[in-house]
Amino acid sequence: MSVNAFCKHAGISVSGLLAVLSGKAEPSPATVMKCADAMNCSADYLLGLSDRREYIPARSPAEFKDRIFPLLKTRGITQYRLACDCGLQQSAISKWKHGKLPKAETLVLLADYLHCSADYLLGRSDLT
Q: Which domain of life is it from (predicted)?
């Protein structure tokens, strides 16, 4: 499949993909999800968090905010502790409550810190 055909299939721009592939830009989580959906693979695989391409889709896809905050509560981690431990601004965490997604590098950091998959955090899978 050509780059143009892939981008059309994934619903992303060719220039955006080429910028990511050349290292000039970081993919947004939305782009990661679109590419993972188009390739039928896990976001963790695309982000280098796993060697496994496969993933089990969520029964009911969820938003990031509906995954991160309950997970923090379950794990007994305050937003303040998360910010301190991960070097995040509390204002960034507050934006997540309103539906904003973290940067891809932050998503990788969160998945590692919380010992869960990026696919889970993004609402693509029910498996942590």
A: Bacteria
pTM of the entire predicted model: 0.90
Contact yes or no for 17/3 (Cβ under 8 A): yes
For the segment 31-80, what is each residue's pLDDT rounded down to a tens digit? 999 999 999 999 999 999 999 999 899 999 899 999 999 999 999 999 99
Q: How do the domains of the chain map onto residue ranges? A: 3-46, 65-121
Closest C-alpha to 82, from 63, 54, 56, 109: 109
**Per CATH, the architecture of 65-121 is what?**
Orthogonal Bundle (1.10)
